Amino acid sequence: MKYFTFRNCLALLTLAVGLVNASCNSVITLREQRVSTKIQIDSTIADDPAYVRLYAPYKDRLEAEMNRVVGRTNVALTKPANAPETLLGNFFADALLAEGRKLYPDAAFSFGTKGGLRIELQPGDITVGHLFELMPFENELVILELRGKSISELAQFIASTGGQPVAGMRMRIADSGATDILIGNTPLDTARTYTLVTYDYLANGGDNSRGLNDPVNRINLGKKVRDALIDYVSRLAQEGKHINPKLDGRIIQAR
């Protein structure tokens, strides 16, 4: 922005945009016209060697960590859309419950959603990068103490959506409703309080989940779900075990 002061009684300033009459001691402001240029960002742009040298060490370290093998799966971890129970969902819920119990031993069951699991895993090595792709969000583990009535509402949500990942819980789906609900090996008692492992996104109402909005108590465990998955797979590998979930009937669709 440029400023010009004219001390003449009258001045006639001719600009590209027209004629401006200026009085004594007036200040005229000239505004620069800015021209924008669209630049296409694609593979035709040559790398800048200076920037490449700057980020290359960090890129190499990141790739090395993402390619680090933490375990192995014997089976394809898939999540067919129309299946009430899936191998990927069972693996995920089992990991949530196992890692949640390390921080809160009284946890009874776990719950997640199929929509939050972003990729399927093929048989073979599992890398850190695979688990980042599976759970790319910054979600953290949460403990919810829930009344039996709330768990019944959660079970109805699971049934109405055709089944979701759970561990420590069993149920049947009949006419889009939940029946024969077990926590552990015991029928659900609506007068009792149970402890659930899930993550903050769902606890805050994400994925339109129901039954989690009125807990007796909530404890944020301060651990990323992704880190819990990495720890779970790594621990099994250290014990000489591979990921090998089964379809065990924890959610059954009545015919």
UniProtKB/TrEMBL annotation:
Keyword Signal: yes
Residue ranges constituting the 5'-Nucleotidase C-terminal domain according to the UniProt record: 69-209
Signal peptide extent: 1-22
Source organism (scientific name): Parapedobacter deserti
Sorted UniProt keywords: Signal
TM regions (residue ranges): none
The keyword Signal is annotated on this UniProt entry: yes
Protein name, entry field: 5'-nucleotidase C-terminal domain-containing protein
